Amino acid sequence: RADEGTSYSIVVHGEERDATGDFILNLRKPPANGICDTSLELFPNEGISSGSLVQACQEDLLLGCASLLEAPGVWYTVLGTGNLMNARLSGVVCEQQSRLTSQISVFEGVDCSDLQCTEAIQGGCQTDLFETSVRWFSSVNETYYLYVQSSTTTVFNLTVKDILPDRPDVCTNATKLDGVGATVWGSTLSAAPDDLGSCSNSSDFYASTCNTGTDFATDVTILTGDCENFGCVDATTVSCDGKRSITYWSTLPDETYLIYVNGNDNTEPSSGRFNLTIGEGVQGAVNDFCPSAIELGIPSRSEGATVDATSDKVAFCENEMNDAPGVWYSTRGNGNLLTASLCGDSTDYDTRIYIFTGTCGSLRCIVSNDDFCASKSEVTWESEPDEVYYILVSGFGSSVGNFEISIFEDA
Questions:
Q1: Are 307 and 326 in contact (CB under 8 A)?
Q2: Cys staple from 339: which of 18, 264, 346, 380, with CB 3.0 to 4.6 Å?
């Protein structure tokens, strides 16, 4: 940003030391909301806002959103309402047909110097006009920063809406799910408590909040009957990481089941947003979740796979968690240097490995690795006698595959 009244010198030179030639230098003033600090404020449900990318520049953002387009962009802000929100980009005149031409990225943070990606969506021109939208769960009075980019147009329309669906926090407003494979996003924020009693024991289908997007300690209860006269179905509920949960139950043909998601009063936080999946059989790999970690001896060698696993978002590590599925192991320290290696010949994908201490409900990452032997991973750490260490085998990006894990003392 250029300060008023300050003189600046501009040096133009070739990329190579002796490179020379003619050039044209353009100085331009970006639009009013061309940088984050001068974002324009939008208000939900107040109609369409017209925007312009004329003279806009491209921000150099490395903030974890989907691959940001190499395209100019402008900034907006909107205050969260606690509901699902939708930002819709429309009215884009497509000057050329392309698969990826525009993007809306949503960030949150204390200010423009502390932004973290919340959600992003990309789209392209398949017809003469183009539109796309991005949705995210908002927190009350949280400021969200919207970055709008396009490589094919200079004008657009932007609409931000507060989505207010029927709240399924009472039985009569229950959201209908389409059976096995159904996934729904929801929130228990501001929901009223319900007294259902207790349920237990059985399996065949499952209802799981053990998915990326669940951010609080959940309980999942299965009921049958109607909203005036319902009863518990025998079901088995297990925790996948000390917080999120999965409930198994046996189904009857043509029976309608009520699925109640609520917070666990004994674990904080006890309300928040969740991602609920309905499935058949057993979800994921045997050691898909931390509490079902397979114990490994010292020394030992085992083979495994992450193909049927789900993704894990746990404690922060040097190698940031991503959406790659992972499986869990544990080993007990002996006071010596220990190594966990995925460098064996049976490992056939781009791996990551993480080592934790603590409990499954409160993990602390002590070491992690991405590429140690080509694209395979290996870590070494100094163990404490009888300390239990949890090992998460995952992948880079969204990679999955087969692996060979070896635990041994470092010579």
A1: no
A2: 380
